[in-house]
Each structure stands twice: as structure tokens, then as C-alpha cells.
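User: Hey, my collaborator sent me this sequence without any context and asked if I could get a structure. I don't really work with proteins. Can you help?
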Amino acid sequence: MSETWTPGRLRRRFVQFARGGTASIVATAITTNVLRIASSVTLTRLLDARAFGIVGIVTSVAIILQLISDIGVLPFVVRHDRGDDRKFLDEIWTLRLLRSAALTIIMAAVAIPVSRFLDKPEFALILAVWSVNFIIDGLSSMTFATAIREQKLWRLTLSELTASVAQLAIAVALAIILRSYWALLIAMLASATLKAVLSYVLFPNSRRRWSLSGERAREMWAFSRFIAPSSLMTVLILQADKVVLARLMPLVTYGLYAVAATLSAAGPVLAASYARRVLYPAYAEVARIDRGALRDVFYAKRRLVALLYMAAMGMIGGGAQLIVAVLYDARYLPVAPFLQLLCISGALTLANTAAEEVLIAAGNVRATLFANATRMIWLVASVCATLVIGRTLVLVAGFGLMEVAAMLTLWFSLRRVGLFNFREEMFGLFAGCIGAVVGLLVAHLGLAILPSIRM
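Assistant: No problem. I've predicted the 3D structure and written it out in C-alpha cell form, which is a compact way to encode the shape of the chain:
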């Protein structure tokens, strides 16, 4: 018997969706991208490209340190049987705080060597000041993991968006006063502080106490022994291009690349958040109850969002010239080709991240290690080609195509454990291609109608 869609039923379905995790991710994506664009458009008119190059390099150094010390706290807590136990959370919080304190000390210690390597001595003070961000993050509660486990995603979204709005407001205000990259750095530290405070204010039972446990440390290491080397490879995958480009490019040109990377990151950030907060908990629950149903749930859970996401990223890449011409002044026109290339990998991020999450849920943690090994090999080849040919755009193209190589590796891993569906994967690629064609047509038409912004 078919289901009758009465107004009351539709209203209940809408309320159910609005309260669910997917709706919170969609709301976060829309709001974050609006803030990202508003921030980029406003701050590029107050600061020169050099400021964004500086922030890009500082962020890259921080991400490198963060990833090489990754211990997999989020997936460990979400899938653990004691993930709701106060004592267990105190022990994990203590380990995380120790890691954060160590990262603050290490980043401050490497500030001078890194600035000398990049041949940019002014970076020493910048890196040392920004290192405080690690300890601020470590002092926050465990709600970044427990909220996902308990599916309290709207509260998590509220805390993150509040911090993002505050960061934008502080950055704009300080940029008007200082006209310096310090406006961006101070705003980032203020946002991290506010986010840490909100992790306690917005969530009940979020207070944590010091509780150092050798047993918990050993258990976490047993879980993260494949995550650690995988994260180490992620450092090379996500940051090596930036380190090489920062070395080879003038700071102004690198600033243009950083703007393109910021725009293209909107999609991958959404993909990572959706996969980590919605897909992984669902996959982990199914894997615990009925492993045989995991294949169907894997595709059914991601299908609609993945298709829309890939089509949207294709449109952004196809319409890059129009997007850049509308948002920025003539100084930033070279951002467009960078954005086009980076959107290729961006379009594949959700499907690939979902594949990694379902493989972890199925107990095949090492599959993510193999995928990252593929990415790393591809990136090393791209760096070598860049050095031989002498054109930095080659490395940008290599980075833009890197997720294609990872996709093939993940398909192989999915097939080995009986989770692969070729037709479902083709639907996603087709959606991305259609989006790119639509974006190209819209850009061509828009630039023809508005000749004053023609590139």
C-alpha cells in the first residue's frame, strides 16, 4: 500500500529533517560559505594579497603539526562502547590536552627554522604567536566528538557558526584599523577562544577533569596505529604543495593561490563535516548490528547529498572565471585558473571521504592508509614534474587531479570488502560533469552580458 502524503505527514517529515544531522550540515555549509565569501570580498579590499599569503603559510605549518600528531580522537570516541562515560571522556580529554600543549611548544620552537627555510624572517614572531591556538583548542571540552555521537549537531553548528561570525567581525574591524595581516591572525585566536568557551556553555555535562590513564593511552594507540601514519601522509598530501609553492612563488602570487584554495575549500570542508558527523556514525552503528546491510546503507545514506555536492562543485569549477570577476577587483583575476583546477579534487572529496569512513566503520582502517599512499605518490610525481618543467601551475594541476588517483584506490578497497557499486559511482561522476558544463555556459553567458567584468 502506497504512503499517503497528507499535510500533517509532510509537516512531520519536514520537522524530522530540520532536526536531523543533514539539515544542520546544510545550514552550516550555506552559512559558512556566505561568511567565507563575505570575508574574502571584504578583506581583499582592505588588505593586499601578501596578507593572505602569510595566513596561508601559517595555517599550513599548523596543519602539518596537527596532522603528524593525529591520534584519531573523534572516531575513537564515536565508536567506543564507553563513549558516554564521564571517566572515559576525562581520560581522553587529558591525553588531548597534553598533545595540544606539546604542539604549542613545538610550533614556537620551529618558528625561527621555518622562517629561515622559507626565506621570510618575519614569520618567526607570527608562528610563535599563533602557536597559542593549539593550547586554546586543547582546553575546549570533548563536545566536538560527543555531540556527533549523540547527534546533537545543531548545538555544535551553533557554536561553530557563532565563532565564525565573531572571527569575521573582528577581522574586518581590525583590518580597518591595522591594515595588516595581524588583523587576520588576532581574529583567528579570538574565534578559537570563543569556540572553546561555547563548548562548555552550550552543552550539558561538558565539564572535564584531569585524569591521566596509561591504559587509555595504549588503547587509543592500538586504534590509531594506522591513523597516525595515514595522517602523516595527509600532511604531505594537503600541505606539501603549499610549502613548495610558498618557496617557489612570490608572496603576492602565493596569496592569489591562497585565495583560490580558500574558495575551493568550501566544498571539501562540507564533505568532511558531513562524512564525519552524519555518515560515519550511521555506518558505525550498522556495522555493529548488521554488517551485511552496510553496502546498501553506504550508498543510500550518501546518494542525494553526494549528487548535489558533485554537481555544485562542478558548477563552481566551470564558472570560476565569472565567480572571480564578480567577487574581486582586477588584482585577483589570476585566481580563476587556480580555482578551476582545485575544484576537480574538491568535487571528488565527498565520495572519497564517505568511502574512507565506511571502510573504517567496517574495520578496514588500513584502507585509508593505502588511499593516502596513492595520493602521496601522485603528489611526489607532481612536485618532481614541477621542478623539471619549471612551472608552478603543473603542481596546482597535480593537486587538482590527485583525488582521481585516490578514488581508484578506494574503489579497489571497497570492492575487496564487498561494498562497491559501479553504477552508483558513475552517477556521481556524471553529476559533476553536468555541473561543470552548466558552470561553463553560465560563465560564458555572464561575461558576454557583462563585458565590464570580462577577464
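In plain terms: Residues 17-224 form one domain. You can pass these C-alpha cells on to your collaborator as they are.
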